[in-house]
Amino acid sequence: FEVLPIARVGDDPAGRGLIQEMNEVGIETSHIQLVAELPTLFSVCFQYPDRTGGNITTSNSAASRLSQTDIEAAINFLRTGASKVIALAMPEVPLEVRRQFLELAKGSGAFCVASFAGAEVRPALESGVFHNVDLVSLNASEAEQLIGLPLSREAADVLVSDCQKLLVDSYPELKVIVTAGKSGAYGITAREWRFCPAPKVGVASTAGAGDALLGGVIAALAGGIPFLGSGRRDDSSNKGLIESALDMGVLLASYKCLSPHTIHPEAAPQSLVEFASRLDWSLSPDVAKLLTPPYPGPGCEKPGEASGEKR
């Protein structure tokens, strides 16, 4: 499928280099604008001795200049793709611009995905952004902002219960991912939830793992894999069946952690199959078909509907 970023980068070596890297892998870059007076967004990733970490991102970058005009320039793409479009809105772009983008995308029939920085979660709720989102990905601190409860093993059931209450009351069709660092990730809907534990791997860097997890989930949904599987994996052995989009996301995030780069340069379907085999994880027939050539072509289902789920 075609990837169409809508973004602004600095007219500097970093910005021009990013555009070149995207072009080299076939990403359409006609909607990426160069900004002469501001630098490309810069982020410092840090890691503690226990391998946890985070990042500090500049706020005075070219990304902050993305505007509604930039969004409207790509609206024809949204309308042309209709229900086969996945619209993804990420942080570092102004929240109001992302709200407008998701509103246009939702109105065009796209499957809408978003993530938010911790300080944005409450303003996003208050501005109505979540009404135009089909899938949201949050880390532990961002989930705390969503329901006002620290995420811990002891409080997991309470967190899930409170999150499901919010979904039932206000967002009955919303799918929620809550990442729990090295523990794994939760997948939550108004009707059910699953926890997928992460395997123990040699970690080179966790920077970018959350984005990799979301990317794995989106790719699996696009391939017709259901959001949640039939049950939890065996926590004691970390062995199990990769059968859901959530499982795929955790698998890709774990694989990413093997690399010091924010995007693992060797991430590909075959490398994920080999990684799962090393973990002694098996693939469901549908996931194996998705990851094994010849790869299936695009279907007619909207993401999440292949197994009877509503979007």
Number of separate strands:
12
The shape, in one word, is globular
Count, helices: 11
Head-to-tail CA distance between termini: 20 Å
Low-confidence stretches: 233-238, 298-311
Gyration radius (Cα, Å) is 19 Å
Average pLDDT score: 86
Structural class: alpha/beta
Strand arrangement, major sheet: 5-6-7-8-9-10
Give the SSE order as H and E letters: EHEEEHHEHEHEHHEEEHEHHEH
Beta-strand portion reads 15-25%
Q: Which percent bin holds the helix content?
A: 25-40%
Q: Give a short account of the largest sheet.
A: 6 strands, mixed
Question: Which key features would you list for this structure?
Answer:
311 residues, alpha/beta, 35% helix, two-stranded parallel sheet, 6-stranded mixed beta sheet, globular
Concise structural overview:
This protein is α/β, with parallel strands linked by helices and 311 residues long.
